[in-house]
Amino acid sequence: METIGIFGGSFNPVHIGHMMLASYLTQWGYVDQLWLTLSPRNPVKDPAQLLPDTKRLAMLSIAARGAEQIDICDIELSMPRPSYTIDTLDVLRDRYPDKRFKVVIGSDNWRIFDKWRDGQRILDEYGVIVYLRPGYPVDIQHVDGLEVVDAPMIHVSSTFIRQAITKGMNMNYFLPAGVWKYINDNKLYRP
User: Who's near 155: CB < 8 A, 6+ residues apart?
Assistant: First the structure.
């Protein structure tokens, strides 16, 4: 059965760190495919900071264009909001019964995973891949359904990108090919 990694996020904007992780997880065999899953509204993030779904989805489409084993998933855009990972996984399992799904999260989110809706059920029924993030070590103890990955990482975030753009910085090398042009053409993240 094919294993699909579900890497959810606001992708506001998608950056090279997201794509590096997606590439690593597929090429090193942790998952067969990775779906970048756009969250219309993360329950723990300020919605005022988000670009419209259509613009973030367009940037994801540009980033994933031509990428092997990496695709985008917009299923949450048609689901009730705020979106919860367990609901997304249940819908995906119903739609694709021939695939196995695993959630991909950073070690910062693993620290608060006990606060996630039905976190234990996610571990039991789906599985979680945790990638290490600087400053958020994971106690590598055995937890059923958990796999910890020490993927290569860079110190870049969507917040950093947005702040740099508002200061007039050139973010071309921090973004997947074509995304910087889309941001400029649409005058996104400008004050």
Answer: 134
Please count the CA atoms within 13 angstroms of the CA of 178 that sit on its side-chain side.
9
The CATH architecture assigned to 2-154 reads 3-Layer(aba) Sandwich (3.40)
Which residues touch 102 (CB under 8 Å, ≥6 apart)?
3, 4, 5, 6, 31, 126, 127, 128, 129, 147
Q: What is the pLDDT of residue 40?
A: 87
Q: 54: burial class by Cβ within 10 Å (0-12, 13-18, 19+)?
A: exposed
What pLDDT, on a 0 to 100 scale, did the predictor assign at position 163? 96
pLDDT in tens, 64-97: 998 999 999 999 999 988 889 999 999 999 999 9
Instruction: Write down the domain spans for the chain.
Output: 2-154
